[in-house]
Amino acid sequence: MVNKAKFQDFFACCVGKWQTERTYHYLTQKEVERSHTDFNIKPLTVEGKAKVLADNKYPVQAELESLPGYNLGFYTISETGEEVSQELNFLFVLKAEYSPFLEGDYLRDRAYEEAKPIVSHFRFNTNTKELLMTTYYTRVVSVDSITLINPNLRIRKILNYLRPPEGQPLETVGLVGFGVELKQ
Questions:
Q1: In contact, 48 and 65? CB cutoff 8 Å
Q2: What stretch of H or E contains 52?
Q3: Is 177 in contact with 24 (CB distance < 8 Å)?
Q4: Please, what are the domains in the chain?
Q5: Cα–Cα distance between 159 and 23 in angstroms, integer?
Q6: pLDDT per residue over 109-151, tens digit each?
């Protein structure tokens, strides 16, 4: 039996204001960029969760109250002065459990790479408290990892692969990002 309480605790710890320092390595352009991001994560209402499901044309879920769902607002400024600000809602629907993993669908009302609703895959390791999210966009496949070290420290790793032809493995990395996230 997988410990679902660790999954709920992971998200409870993520609520609040966070600051992130990241380094992005653009391998195809041979560039490195640093950025600073301020995050604000708030629980999503039951109505907000239902809207994320509807936006994605996803089946209605029983016990909607218990599904982890959040509103994420962020502001990023890069060392070159480029600014990005966005707000989105997201929801996690558990589909499978096998020790020590929980897996399911990760739904957003707006994707990072493409401004539309999207359903992705997640896997949570209850031993390491790592949330791994994989999203297939039109041109890239993003593999995003958040590891909760303690309630005030998360480590972030992002790998963006150039999207291969259907059925082919992920091989060509276009971007690698690393971040240290501190709760404020």
A1: no
A2: helix 46-55
A3: yes
A4: 4-183 (2.40.128.20)
A5: 12
A6: 988 778 899 999 999 999 999 999 999 999 999 999 999 999 9
